[in-house]
Amino acid sequence: MQLTAGWGRFAIRVVGTASGSPARVCLRAEGEVDLATAPLLRTALLNALDSPDIAVLELDLDGVTFMDAQGVSALLQAVLRAREVGCQVRLLRPQSYVRRVLAITGVTAVCEVQ
Questions:
Q1: pLDDT at 59
Q2: CA separation for the pair 45, 42 (Å, rounded)
Q3: Ordered strands of the 54-67 beta sheet
Q4: Could you write out the three-class secondary structure of 78-105?
Q5: Low-confidence ranges of the chain (pLDDT < 50)
């Protein structure tokens, strides 16, 4: 899955899956997550959570250079949906700016950030 929007400012793709029971899905986001691109992030995360027997959803944020409140909202919506299906969300390798946004907004209190 690769989705792009906002003049190529954002992309998200599946970089790994472990099938079986329980399943793990890893997505990688790159670019800016803002009002224009957050819906793509939200859609990709929610679609991944529809995977059968999913136990862990990982989102690699190393390539994300900007995240605003819309991006935080997309993440929190995914965390809520993950709890409904019994899945754990892990946010991997956020850059310092993004890590700070996640901490200030309380995202680090509701999901694992590595």
A1: 96
A2: 5
A3: 2-5, 10-18, 23-33, 54-67, 88-92, 112-113
A4: HHHHHHHHCCEEEEECCCHHHHHHHHHC
A5: 4-6
Give the three-state DSSP class for 42: helix
Close Cβ partners of 70 (under 8 Å, ≥ 6 residues apart): 33, 34, 35, 38
**CATH, range 2-113:** 3.30.750.24
Residue 9 backbone phi and psi in degrees, to 5:
-80, -10
**Contact call for residues 1 and 41 (beta carbons, < 8 A):** no
pLDDT of residue 82: 97
pLDDT at res. 13: 77
- Residue boundaries of the structural domains of the chain: 2-113
Strands 112-113 and 88-92, bridge-based pairing: parallel
**Are 3 and 38 spatial neighbours (Cβ–Cβ below 8 Å)?**
no
| Distance between CA atoms of residues 41 and 44, nearest Å | 5
| Tokens at 29, concatenated | 């986001």
